Amino acid sequence: MAGTAVRGRLKPLTWQVATVAEAVDETARVRTIVLDVPDWPGHRAGQHLDVRLTAEDGYRAEREYSIASAPGEPVAITVERLEDGEVSPYLTDELRAGDGIELRGPIGGYFVWDGDDGDPLLLIAGGSGIVPLRAMVRHRQRAGSDVPVRLFYSSRTLDDVIYRGELDEVGDGIEVVYTLTRERPAGWTGYNRRVDGDLLREVAWPADEGARAFVCGPTSFVEAVAEGLVDLGYPPARVKTERFGATGS
Amino acid sequence: MEALDGNAIGGLLLEVFGAELTTARGTCAACGATAQVAELAVYLEAPGTVVRCRTCDSTLMVVVDVRGRRCVDLRGLAALE
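Above: the input entities. Below: the structure tokens describing the complete assembly.
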């Protein structure tokens, strides 16, 4: 039947101008930008969008950002300011509510979690790699899913932890475990070292529990974690990875 | 330069091919390894965008913009499905 049951995109992905509804500082270097996108087809937890900035002389720069919000929520991205960045300092420091910004999306079908199976979810984030995983956590909550979730989050310092208030209150069935790799507050009882095989053995579910793993962060972090999980017996096909450019973890 | 992965070129591939390709499976013409595009090694500042096989490091795809024209070299791919 023509025109029915077509899953996917019916028209080419085009650039459009979204309006900044709200900008929220998450940490000293990280800001969440909530967007009003006039023509948004909906997204899946873990997808991205592309942002394009055009300078007065016509020079353009594009960057891909993970969508921070759950399906059904207003589109939001969370951006970490890179000191030598072409795009991120504008997004974190200059952009104001009411401003327009060019974007296209949603993009990607690999690093996504739809929550339609009952497998436990192991989420492992390094630095701003938390962003797409946060969308998955929020999707689980909004969907009323009871899938067990363990979120292991590696950050440099406690002040660098993004969404800290939200992650402190995620509620039943979601366990959040931190490691702080550079500096710990007095009395810190969480982990205090970079992720390695031994640490993964402590925080990851045993492979025979059939968990699905999503790992997002800087390249070296993602590769160490993915190798570590496979060494623990996780089938490679159940370890989805997404690498960011170099940022802190 | 650090390799990212095929997730980073979802938008570029949509632009070039008009389809979501990060879940497509590519076959390396040199070694025969197959992987989903999202799993491939991607270098964004090569110059241009270079996609490599994670098994044998052969170049699978190169996308370069030259004087307003986009050039796509897929000789390293035996298949993309």
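Note for the figure: The first strand of chain A starts at residue 16 and ends at 25.
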